[in-house]
Every structure is written in structure tokens, then in C-alpha cells.
Amino acid sequence: MKLTSFGPANTIARAAETHPLTWRLRDDGEPIWLDEYQAKDGYAAARKAFADMSQDDIVQTVKDSGLKGRGGAGFPTGVKWGLMPKDESMNIRYLLCNADEMEPNTWKDRMLMEQQPHLLIEGMLISARALKAYRGYIFLRGEYTTAAKHLNRAVQEAKAAGLLGKNILGSGFDFELFVHTGAGRYICGEETALINSLEGRRANPRSKPPFPAAVGVWGKPTCVNNVETLCNVPAIVGNGIDWYKSLAREGSEDHGTKLMGFSGKVKNPGLWELPFGITARELFEDYAGGMRDGFTLKCWQPGGAGTGFLLPEHLDAQMYAGGIGKVGTRMGTGLAMAVDDSVNMVSLLRNMEEFFARESCGFCTPCRDGLPWSVKLLRAIETGNGQPGDIETLLGLVGFLGPGKTFCAHAPGAVEPLGSAIKYFRAEFEAGIKPVTPGSLTQVATATMAGA
Q: At residue 436, does pLDDT exceed 80?
């Protein structure tokens, strides 16, 4: 899998005006350290924010830009920042970067951290200034060892240059930044589970309210943002609201650019920075190159394992939250996966649900018991031992574990692909159901009476 931000050769200019997240990337994929980053206008936006903008000005600029969270939920970033308390006496505040990128088929944040660690640091520095946060943590997926090494080096470089620590840029503002590697749980992508884990507790989601902006890490006001979200902040502050809004395609309700990708048996799997509103077909055909010879596109997911499956006929949907929403699912992380015609959907879903069942924190009953139940049924259907009514039970679980039925969004995301797979490929599930015979009915009745 190539970690690249650009499409086929010579099709996209590497320009700061059109690719704010990736224009600095090196052709050899090596990380950009402080001297090179500053030579490419790095920390210029931070200097502007400290010299020419008040803290409220930064918050308002981000709010007016329309920047939304890039971790999958898509909550407006400026609105989230505005929830932090205005009370100046609450002077201990935290900024947390959610870098626990454990969504299957998602690797966008990894590229940013490995190749442009100072972009994330600058984004956190400006954000901390706006939020009046004196300490920040990058909560990093434990398996991202290269990212950890590069981030730690970049933090030390920034400290030595007076860009982190005490009295940053002579402003009187102090900000310490630490890299914290997690123990490896998918549920830590949920911000309050991340907070519990950072505190050394079990990674269970917290009850809300109170929200982290009021009571977060160690009981203090806390803001949690995704890596890609924070990496957008320097360009917004440096280039302005109108410029940022102009980047997206016509028709998109989301502004700016997005790291998007395609994996699976496509000719050119990779990662690209593209404007919101580009069609999935352009992403699939022009950038990913379509399917490899000998394979046919069966279906695709638009943004990670927790998004619903779509058909080839849905490729004309625009890649932004509302555009993907119109065809029945969520954009999620924006990294799509192509499923080819050789894949059995029951086997694919069994594999996915095993992952989600294993990663459940077990806090609430629907998720703790419902996901393993779905795995048990899928295993039976996969081996041809499914019983009449199993598909209906699976669909019942999709409803019981849907939005608003569980403590957090883990279970709804887990069952969304299951519901869509049954919707579009029910025949494959039905093929694993044993035919009803008089003998089988007797066995079922006997088992039922024994159970009673």
C-alpha cells in the first residue's frame, strides 16, 4: 500500500494553494524535520496566530471555516472548541490528539505522523493557544512505532527551537506536548474511553453529560481532536476562511480537502488528498485505477469497516458526508475498500464481526452479548449450518444494536455493514441456511423442549 497524496503522475500540482495537508511531502517518503518544514513555511501560521490573533479570533476562524472532525464523526471543530469553559479561573485545560487509528482499512493519520510530524505539532500548538490549554497529549496507537519515533524527535526539535515549552514565541504562553502510546484497543477511538485509558483506567466510554469540555482528563476541561483535523488548522489560520471554503467541489456541504484512499484488488491502491465533493467514481477509476485485470467490483465501503456496503451503481455519489448519506451510509474516514466478485459476503462479515466483538469494551449488554451472537450465527451460515430464522435474527440484532440503543457508537458501527450486506446480498446468506425437512423440524422441536 503506497502512502502517497497524489494521483497518477502529473495529474495534480503539488501546491500549497490546493493541497494544504500534503504539498510539503517528499518524493522519497522521508519525514520532514524542522529545518525543512520551516523552509516550507512551517510554523508561519503559528507565528501569525500568536502575533496577530486573539484566542477568540482563532476559535472563530476555525468555526467560520466549517472544519469538521476528520476521525469519522464529522462534528464541527469550531463548535467543539466553543464548548470549552470561558471561566478564566479554570486555568488547567488539556488538548488531546486522537491518534489511535484502529479502524480497519484506515491509515491516513499514520502518513501524516510518519512523514509530517511538525504539521501535527503546529496544529496542536495553534489549537492549544485558542483553547488556553497548557498541556497536550498525542494518544497514539501502540503499533505505530515509526510514528512514535518521528513524533518524539519532532517534539524535541520544537522544544529546542522555543516552539514548545515555556513562553512560546515570547507570548507568555506555555504549552507542553507529550506522545502517549496506547495499549491497543479499538474502543479508545471513542474520546471518553481514550481519556480513561490516558488516566490509566479501563478503556470504557464515560456517561455524557458531563462532556469532556467540562469534565475531561483528570476532571479538567479537555478537547479531543483527530490527527487530520488538527493538521488542517495551520492552513486555515494562514490562508483564511474564503480560501479554505473554495477548495471543495461544487455541491459539497463540507469544506476543504480530505485524505481519501482505496484499497482492495484495485490497480493503484493508495492515499490522496482530494477536495470534498469529488465523486467516488473518480476516486475509484482515476486514482485507484479501477479493478485489477480478472476482477470485477462487487461492492465497496466508503470509509472504514464501520460503514455500510454500497454497490457499483453508487459510485457516482459525491465524497462528503451528505453525499454518501444520500446513498444510505456514512463517509466515515473516507478510505474506501473495494470488494471483488471472488469474495463471499458471509465470510467477510464474519471476519468483520469477530473483530468488532473482540474489541467491544463489554460495558453495555447489547454490544457485549449481541456482537458475539452475530458471530455465532454468521459462523453457522458460513459453514452451511444456518437454521431457518437466523437471517431474521441477524436483522433483529442490527436493529437492537443500532444508533441510540447502546452506550456508545461502537455497536451501531459494527452492525451497519452487516445490515447492508444482508440487504444487497441476501441470497449469499440464504445459501448457508439448511433446508427444512421433517427430520430437521423434529430436531429443532426436541432441542427446544430440552431447553425448556
A: no
What domains, with CATH codes, occur in the chain?
A: 34-245 (3.40.50.11540), 247-340 (3.10.20.600), 345-430 (1.20.1440.230)
The pLDDT value recorded for residue 157 is 98
Residue pair 58/126 in contact by the 8 Å Cβ criterion: yes
Closest CA to 46 of 34, 56, 29, 58: 58
The pTM of the full predicted model, rounded to 2 decimals, is: 0.91
- The confidence band for 13, taking pLDDT boundaries of 50, 70 and 90, is very low
Does residue 440 surpass a pLDDT of 80? no
Q: How long, in residues, is the chain?
A: 452
With contact defined as beta carbons under 8 Å apart, do 101 and 228 qualify? no
Taking the C-alpha atoms of residue 342 and residue 327, their distance in angstroms, rounded to an integer, is 24
Instruction: Determine the Cα–Cα distance for residues 165 and 138; give it in Å rounded to an integer.
Output: 16
- Within its chain, how far is the Cα of 425 from the centroid? 27
The number of CA neighbours under 13 Å toward the Cβ of 285 is 8
Give 207-251 pLDDT, tens digit per residue.
989 999 999 999 999 999 999 999 999 999 999 999 999 999 999
